[in-house]
Amino acid sequence: MTSQDKRKHARIDSLNLSYVLVDGRFSEEKQTMGRTLNVSESGIRLETHLPVELGTQLLLSIGLEDKVVDITGRVVHSSQNEQGAHELGVEFLDIDARVETTLKAFIKAFNQQKK
Questions:
Q1: Among 74-78, 95-99, 107-111, whose mean pLDDT is lowest?
Q2: Nearest alpha-carbon partner for 13 in 37, 47, 46, 41
Q3: Residue 105 belongs to a domain with what CATH number?
């Protein structure tokens, strides 16, 4: 991370399937599948085909290896890539201890595999 980087934790590039529920609503236009592009202990970069406004709260179910974690997050960055997909920077909110432990274990295992 550079001195200009505002992130609390380093991110790892990792593609993981994700179920996204926008604003906690179970309507067809407010839910979609996506995939993580990178993961950290405090947030993710998520690719989805559903545009989502800044500040929007999301409920996420993310597959991390053999576990699925449910996390609430808030969109802090949104852009559209060259393929037309939306890339969202999502800051995690209110992470419980079990999810935090799973995230740390996933990141640790990923970093050990890289060595």
A1: 107-111
A2: 37
A3: 2.40.10.220
